[in-house]
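User:
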Amino acid sequence: IKAFDSFLNPVTKPPSHGMIAGISDSSKNVEITDNQVKGIEEADKIKRTDKHIFYMDGEYLRIFTINGKESVEVGSHWISSTLGNQFFLSDDAKTVTVISKMNYMESDHSVSYTDVYSLDVSDPSNITQKVKLRIKGGFDSARMSNGKLLLFVRYGPYEREINFSKPLTFLPSMDRGNGYELLPNCDILCNEVIRMPRYIIAMMFDAEELVLEKSVAALSYYNDPYVSEDKIFFSGIAAEGDRTNILCVDYSQEKFEVLGSVKVEGAIEDQWCMDEYNGILRVVTDTSTSADLHCISLESFDIIASVKGFAPEKERVRAVRFDGTNAYVCTSITQQFDIIDPVFFFDLSDLNNISYKESEQLDGMSTSLVNFGNGYAIGIGQDILDKEGYRRLLKIEAYKESEDSVVAVDRYELSDIRFSTDYKSYYIDRKNQLVGFGYSGNWNEETESFTDYYALIKFDFESGKFIELLNMELNGERNQNKRSVYIDGYLYMFGENDFKVEMIDLDATANE
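Assistant: Predicted structure:
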């Protein structure tokens, strides 16, 4: 098996953000997902053109017209899924690529699968399936760039005892309708320490017909991969245990090409903790005592600058956002039902003289940070409402860099609610200064259910204040699945089997 060549010889070496909703031709995809890297689209539950909005409502892809209060559903397509669906819309808005999480019981164990569909949506009233394939392993994440689908799947052998005479029981495989076959030419890149026999498989497909062009499997790399314009960064525990090994792979060539690797102290929380800028990889890590920031040359894979131990003792990294030569980091610690939340602002314009400022100790913590423009960052997170520690509130806070610190300028709160911490579930519109989110209120004794809502707030740059523009009922107890988009004076909101449109007068509200 060709993959064993790499298995037995483990590797020892290895932008601004989100796009804003706007107007485009009817045949073009208008990106509204707040992607980490400009031009690298991430799978989501909502996409749009200038005439239609596409929304993944549970197991149904639904298509709606964009016509204010007169908007209607004009087409739908059922997608079988047991765990959830996300999708992409092609640049010409004629093809939808759906990625589904599946889970089945086989014998006495559960097996995860990832299904990928290519749908023809050129006629919204007559959606047809073009291609479907199934990959053994659980869906991790996906990106789309220039008509190429980059798919990440987590896979581990599921047999109790691996039978090396049956490669399909322990190597990555795919079914295009004729039974499972090994992924062709799939090299396996090994971490130096094999903590678990599990892979993150990276596959690149032509998105129209789902033709597999190349693949690679990273063995014993656990964290969400970070994807830049032409590179993938895998991360996993290094041999020392308190360090992380980062593997850099170029995906722009004919084959996946390993460029190098580097070790950093501490652990990497998620994809937002890494960022490539002008040939430098910037990384924020949790250590056993504090937090570090490292800058790594992608030419030599040497650490060329670091800021170590910048967070108070024992605090954990909760959220990171890089923006060009700037970076915001939120760390926190929970002490006797109090959450303490400092926010740090880093100036990375001179790597020989990295400087940073920090806020005072703030209540609560941010699980997502948004580089909002005009010198502001928005933190979305939570706080504890009382000393019993079980009543929590949503907090959305605005931060601005001052001369010698980071200042919290305003805070929006909702108490006793349930809400999503999935960043994609928030609607981020920097142009119109909007943040939208779904939430569930208190238990309703009459209906024996939670009441579900959608809220839209604006952060007004002139006053430095949050303004609530809308707060109304919207079905869907799974707040991570609720979505919205603001178009030409209207907010289009989507929940579980629910669709609402409300007029939003931004100018009138801002002048109140």
